[in-house]
Design a protein that fits this description.
CATH topology of chain A: Rossmann fold
Shape of chain B: globular
Distance between the termini of chain A: 17 Å
Shape of chain A: globular
Strand order of the largest sheet of chain A: 2-1-3-4-5
Number of helices of chain A: 4
Order of helices and strands of chain A: HEHEHEHEEEE
Number of domains of chain B: 2
Strand content of chain A: 25-35%
Number of strands of chain A: 7
Number of helices of chain B: 13
Radius of gyration of chain A: 16 Å
Helix content of chain A: 25-40%
CATH class of chain A: Alpha Beta
Chains: A alpha/beta (about 170), B alpha/beta (about 425), C alpha/beta (about 290)
Helix content of chain B: 25-40%
Oligomer: heterotrimer
Structural class of chain A: alpha/beta
CATH class of the largest domain in chain B: Alpha Beta
Radius of gyration of chain B: 21 Å
Strand content of chain B: 15-25%
Distance between the termini of chain B: 21 Å
């Protein structure tokens, strides 16, 4: 299968996001990328939008639900949100949406900072493999993979998508 | 019973005999070496080809734990263990409960030992009542009941003067005093040798001077009182040097070391393993080398097991909360054979340190393999090895050598011509 | 004859990850750095509205005290003397999947304190490669000093100094790779970090020191003495501090003191170590299951 070109997806996402924000009447949202891929996507998106808005980075390692099975990620880093969460409209950005558990963890973490006014979810890819009732407000492309396949984003520049086969 | 032992390499360190020959036993004694006596019809015969026959080992310090410490051991179990280690005569220390300071306790121990019939037991009586270091025990009563020597264990006398008087009293009657020299104040609270390992582990230390300061004092008191003295459980190179100096200036003192002190050092403590918690403590490599040299030269003429069996709970706690002691009498011969394997001693010298040496130190009727002596023998196989712990007789499993493969296997131990242990 | 039971260190699993946290002895530099990095992440948590994370939700944590928590002089002293190796013992006998974290055993080790001291140094000084660190006081009885010396060595600090009278220095101190000083002026010259240790009042008994006053005269950290260190040197203390015994109040409360920060770092370090140890236990269980197949 051929993977889409991230750069093209980013431009489309930027347009869709602008439309979405206008529709919702959101004027000064805060951008937050989920480490590591989500941060790259967020940076590319901000550049596309020509925005100099500060970018928050979120590390969800402490909020994952698979600690008992897989332990702690060896390279956990501090989250860094250079703005208030309380009462703000947030744009949460990740690279690949699969089960939805990363997004759940991210939202739980955000709520420990304060109570946001809203969260808009932006994803580069949706793999349509959700285990939780979570879907993106803005998405670059939807893909269907086989059970053994995964998609990996490399970056930050250039952004590239790679298909991986777990069985190998 | 008439018994013949055929074809063994017979080694008697006392006489220098080392030859493949035959032994003839009757009525509990050795009646001939070499040619059978006229008209001798053996009821039983042991084919000892390929085995070494030596005097039964004499172990000067084996805690039998009876009376008073039944969870740790009893006379039957521990003498059985001793027989398995090749021991035919042993001395038990006075730290029983009640303390071995009355003829009643002495008789109890001797009776039980006779009943068990595994090993000859020569009790060491307490030098002071209750081992409290204050009042002299009734040494003559104890001697008459069967005690062969007197000691105060690791307990110091409160007053040096009292100790001095005790030695003079013992000297009056030609009694032997066994010293475990340790200065109470320097050793107080210590769990391990005061050195780099104890510092690293955060364990309070017992400095070498705890031994040498007390030893120097005790040697001078021995000289002044003229008492027969045996110094037991030395741990430091400086300590054996002091003994050597005393011997060189004519003082007739003897000394023993625990076998494990010739093998282990304080580095064994590195994982806080309570199996290596002993008192007096394991010291450095340099100390171990000094002890080994002294055993080789004969300054130390006796090796003992310093057998101290314990119940599991006594060793199952953080290091400082465990009781000290290693249970090892049932490995005495095979474990001691590592000293021959290492090249430290030749076989006759090792056997001397385990039989004639200890027997002479306390003037025990043992340690000799000659015509007319009691038929106390050990027959062992140099070509086979013993996996320590495969069959364990002592009640105490607190032995760090369990699981190791040791050179030589005891095949028979005979006491008064009767088999007390057979592999 | 080597003990048959010499094997992989108890606190590391088959992949070299932490599965217990007992002592800093034998832990490689990379692992110590990982602890510091993970602790940094937990420090950030401390700055939020909700200062917890759900990582260990559902796990049971058991605090086991071997030492009397009341300040009864004799029992505390005796207990502290006798219990080196307590955490090691528990770790050896505990059932699988239980991680043991040593909160300080006798005089042996205080690994969490060691790591929080390292985190403090890293946050205020950047790294360890060019640093000069002095540890002052009762080294002999201090598990904090032992853990600090081990950590500094493993993290590459080139100049580790201890300053104390002979009675308060353990035999074999050289094995830690430190330089020994018995004079404060010499020992503090141009250091970047001063770690003051607590002097227990009980040390006066037993002939280790004549009096607190004499100790303060010779080894107390006063403003004047601190002036001999680098002008931007930081002052640390594991606490609780004895004002006027090992440290002058003006120094303890002064601009170079980071003593209060140490407490905050301590929480982050403990969270990091708990998470990593639980993680290591999980990984070991998986490894063993895979081996069984």
């Amino acid at each position: 299968m051929s993977l889409p070109n991230p750069a093209e997806l980013i431009s489309q996402m930027a347009l869709r996001l602008k439309a979405h924000l206008e529709h919702r009447g959101i004027s000064e949202p805060r951008f937050i990328g989920i480490r590591t891929g989500g941060v790259w996507v967020a940076q590319a998106l901000l550049e596309e939008l020509g925005s100099d808005s500060p970018l928050g980075t979120l590390d969800v390692s402490f909020y994952r639900d698979d600690f008992s099975q897989n332990g702690l990620h060896p390279q956990v880093q501090p989250s860094a949100l250079p703005f208030e969460v309380e009462g703000q409209h947030l744009i949460l950005i990740d690279d690949v949406l699969m089960s939805g558990r990363t997004i759940r963890a991210a939202m739980n973490e955000l709520f420990d900072y304060g109570r946001p006014a809203s969260i808009t979810l932006v994803c580069l890819l949706d793999l349509d493999a959700g285990e939780l009732p979570i879907s993106p407000d803005v998405v670059g492309a939807t893909l269907s993979l086989q059970a053994r396949q995964r998609v990996k984003l490399s970056g930050p520049t250039p952004l590239e998508l790679e298909l991986q086969d777990l069985a190998l | 019973m008439k018994l013949s032992i055929l074809g063994a390499r017979v080694i008697d360190p006392a006489s220098g005999l080392d030859q493949v020959t035959d032994l003839y036993l009757d009525a509990g004694k050795i009646i001939a070496i070499g040619a059978a006596p006229a008209g001798f019809n053996a009821i039983e015969s042991i084919d000892a080809k390929g085995l070494v026959a030596a005097p039964g080992l004499v172990d000067l310090n084996v805690a039998l734990r009876e009376p008073g410490y039944s969870r740790k051991g009893n006379i039957n179990s521990e003498t059985q263990a001793a027989a398995a280690g090749g021991v035919t005569s042993l001395c038990c220390p006075p730290n029983t409960k009640p303390v071995l300071d009355t003829s009643a306790v002495t008789e109890l121990i001797l009776d039980r030992a006779r009943e068990a019939g595994n090993c000859k037991v020569f009790p060491v009586g307490a030098l002071s009542k209750g081992l409290d270091g204050e009042q002299l025990a009734e040494l003559i009563a104890l001697r008459d009941a069967g005690c062969v020597a007197f000691s105060n264990g690791l307990e110091s006398f409160r007053s040096t003067r009292t100790l001095c008087r005790a030695l003079e009293y013992a000297a009056t009657f030609d009694l032997t005093v066994i010293f475990h020299s340790q200065d109470r104040d320097l050793a107080e609270g210590g769990l391990a040798h005061e050195g780099a390992v104890a510092s690293f582990l955060g364990l309070p230390g017992i400095p070498e001077t705890a031994e040498t300061v007390a030893l120097a004092r005790d040697l001078l008191l021995v000289e002044q009182s003229g008492v027969r003295a045996h110094f037991s459980q030395l741990t430091s190179a400086r300590g054996v040097a002091l003994i050597a100096q005393a011997q060189a200036r004519g003082l007739p003192v003897t000394a023993d070391v625990a076998l494990y002190q010739l093998i282990l050092t304080d580095e064994a403590l590195i994982d806080f393993s309570s199996l290596y918690h002993v008192q007096p403590p394991l010291r450095t490599k340099a100390d171990r080398d000094g002890l080994r040299a002294a055993v080789k030269s004969g300054v130390v003429s006796a090796i003992s097991s310093h057998h101290q069996p314990h119940e599991r709970d006594a060793k199952l706690a953080p290091f400082g909360a465990t009781e000290p002691g290693i249970s090892s009498v049932e490995l005495l011969l095979p474990l001691a054979m590592t000293l021959v394997e290492d090249g430290l001693l030749d076989l006759p010298t090792l056997l001397a340190r385990l039989s004639a040496g200890p027997a002479d130190a306390l003037r025990l009727p043992a340690g000799k393999l000659e015509v007319g002596s009691p038929a106390d023998l050990v027959l062992f196989d140099l070509g086979s090895s013993t996996v320590a712990g495969e069959h364990w007789l002592s009640k105490g499993e607190n032995c760090p050598f369990i699981g190791h493969s040791l050179p030589a296997t005891v095949r028979y131990t005979l006491m008064d011509g009767r088999i007390s242990y057979q592999a | 004859m080597t003990p048959l039971d010499a094997k992989r260190p108890l606190q590391l699993n088959a992949q070299g990850q932490l599965q217990h946290f007992l002592s800093l002895d034998g832990l490689p530099r990379e692992l110590l750095t990982e602890i510091l990095d993970t602790a940094d992440s937990f420090l950030e948590v401390g700055g939020r509205a909700v200062k917890k994370v759900p990582l260990l939700r559902g796990k049971t944590i058991c605090n086991v005290f071997f030492e009397n928590s009341t300040r009864t002089r004799t029992t505390f002293e005796l207990a502290a003397q006798r219990l080196s190796g307590a955490a090691h013992f528990i770790a050896e006998h505990v059932c699988p999947q239980v991680a043991v974290i040593n909160g300080g055993d006798g005089r042996h080790a205080h690994p969490t304190q060691g790591m929080l001291d390292m985190l403090t140094i890293r946050r205020h000084k950047g790294g360890f490669e060019n640093l000069s660190v002095a540890i002052v006081g009762d080294i002999l009885h201090s598990r904090v000093a032992r853990s600090n010396m081990l950590a500094l060595k493993a993290l590459g600090c080139p100049d580790i100094r201890v300053i104390a009278p002979k009675t308060l220095l353990p035999i074999g101190i050289e094995q830690y790779g430190v330089k020994v000083y018995t004079d404060m002026a010499e020992g503090l010259k141009d250091v970047d970090v001063v770690i003051m240790l607590r002097l227990q009042r009980e040390r006066m008994a037993g002939g280790l020191l004549p009096s607190e006053g004499e100790f303060y005269r010779l080894f107390g950290l006063t403003t004047a003495r601190l002036a001999g260190a680098k002008p931007d040197a930081i002052v640390m203390h594991p606490g609780p501090i004895n004002r006027g015994v090992e440290i002058e109040s003006a120094v303890a409360d002064g601009p170079q003191s980071v003593i209060l920060n140490q407490v905050t770092y301590g929480i982050a370090v403990r969270m990091a170590v708990l998470s990593m140890a639980m993680s290591g236990q999980t990984a070991q269980r998986q490894f063993e299951q895979e081996q069984a197949q």
